[in-house]
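Fold it.
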Amino acid sequence: MPYQKIIRENKMVQKGNIDTYKKFDQLFAGVSIKGKRIADVGCNTGEMGHIAKKKGASYYLGVDARSDFIQAGQKINPDLSFRIGRAEELAGRYDIIIASAMFHYITDHHKFFNQLARCSKMVVMDVWLHDSIHCGFFKTHRNLFIPSELAFLFIAGKYFKKIEKKGASLSPDASTRFIFHLSAPKPIKAKAILIYGKSRSGKTTTAKAMHGFQHLQLDQIFVDGLIDSFRSRNGSITSVSELVEGLDTYKTRYLKRHSDHLTKWLSSRINRDVVIEGYDMIKDDYRGMVVDILKRLGWTDIEEKHFDKTY
């Protein structure tokens, strides 16, 4: 049976093994959602988004690692936004994040909490707790990780200053689950690393080796610009110099093209760690443009690596 019960105009659209509407009221008891931007990680088919919008939320994004859930959610709730992905990879800025009945699927708990703390002011979640008094996680035969209350509070407390236990929540089985409200986030801020220098100096190899960072190769923007210029002239250009001239001067169309591309790329990765590499950042004005865009979109931890040797 599907997880979320769905009702439209007093008619059962989907039977589920959890009363989504009662669960929503439990999660948000005492919390105002009017005008709030909400992300729902492990959203299933997104019925909590439907409820949130009816209660006045200004925006809802449903995120789930399973594409079949996302596809079903898009059919049932075509007015909502959905994205296939994992909670640990969430990007953007939200007032509230819902993390309902999904924490036991998480394996990197520090990355999970840090990313949610980066992206939100508050997290509402119900957590399957083990009854052990010890501070540990307990693995089930289904490879689920169930924390004791001490373990949950210890890890969550590293990334949120305020943790409120709100009581027991609905459960689809005999498991014991409790609602927590996490607020006053204290994340490790998102980092941006700029790698620039000569060709064949190891820039790209270094950037691609940085696990967990989103990677942008700025040189590809230049190549795409050449291709577009070539196409706009119906393939009549016979030399690289003509292609470069077709992009107009460096400080006008060329710089604007790169600025627009970088802004769009970064806007979909706000609060993620990013590494940006390319030759053009060797120029102070171009690198200054990149730094200005990063700062405008919220990155404050920016590191530069200048590769000046060719291997």
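DSSP finds ten helices and 15 strands in the chain.
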